[in-house]
């Protein structure tokens, strides 16, 4: 399917579907999945990267098990707003996934998501070694939670319309 806009997500997530979030790294893929009410992002174990076909098979099996209707991928944008090689790798991953899956993908600016995830793990008193094994899924959850919060605000703004003027 390829890339869709965040505004298209609600139509894709009907019928008890969940939304998945990914943080693509060179060695791992961090994964998080929403609840069915799209309120909370829940980290899942990381996928250790080997080669694309194996990574994709493991990821698609997980997404099917979690009943994912769409996937959010963190787009690593530079601090100046430009896209570098890592962003191009994320776009290439989506192009490759679109050839083997009909799942839609949404790109989400992931600037500082790993930093925020690491700070959260430090606040939770995780040791450096334990953080290393959880950081990518924590970053995926941080990315996904950002999208879930945005969906909630889009839903709230669609419900609130200005009151008609009162007849005085």
TrEMBL record:
EC number(s) from the headed UniProt entry: 3.1.-.-
InterPro entries assigned: RNaseH-like_sf, YqgF, YqgF/RNaseH-like_dom, YqgF/RNaseH-like_dom_sf
UniProtKB keywords: Cytoplasm, Hydrolase, Nuclease, Ribosome biogenesis
Compartments, record wording: Cytoplasm
Function field: Could be a nuclease involved in processing of the 5'-end of pre-16S rRNA.
Family listed: Belongs to the YqgF HJR family.
Domain YqgF/RNase H-like, residue spans: 17-117
This protein's name: Putative pre-16S rRNA nuclease
CDD domains: YqgF
Gene that encodes it: ruvX
Top-level taxon in the UniProt lineage: Bacteria
Pfam (any one): RuvX
NCBIfam families: RNAse_H_YqgF
HAMAP family per record: Nuclease_YqgF
Primary enzyme class: hydrolase
Major localization listed first in the record, in broad terms: cytoplasm
């Amino acid at each position: 399917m390829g890339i869709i806009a965040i505004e298209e997500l609600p139509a894709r997530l009907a019928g008890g579907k969940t939304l998945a979030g990914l943080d693509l790294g060179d060695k791992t893929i961090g994964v998080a999945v929403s609840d069915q009410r799209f309120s909370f992002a829940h980290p899942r174990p990381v996928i250790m990267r080997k080669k694309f076909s194996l990574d994709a098979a493991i990821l698609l099996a997980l997404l099917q098990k979690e009943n994912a209707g769409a996937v959010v991928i963190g787009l690593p944008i530079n601090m100046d707003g430009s896209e570098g090689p890592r962003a191009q790798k994320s776009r290439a991953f989506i192009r490759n996934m679109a050839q083997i899956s009909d799942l839609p993908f949404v790109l989400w600016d992931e600037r500082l998501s790993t930093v925020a995830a690491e700070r959260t793990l430090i606040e939770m008193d995780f040791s450096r070694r334990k953080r290393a094994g959880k950081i990518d899924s924590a970053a995926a959850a941080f990315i996904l939670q950002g999208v879930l919060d945005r969906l909630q605000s889009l839903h709230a703004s669609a419900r609130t319309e200005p009151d008609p003027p009162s007849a005085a």
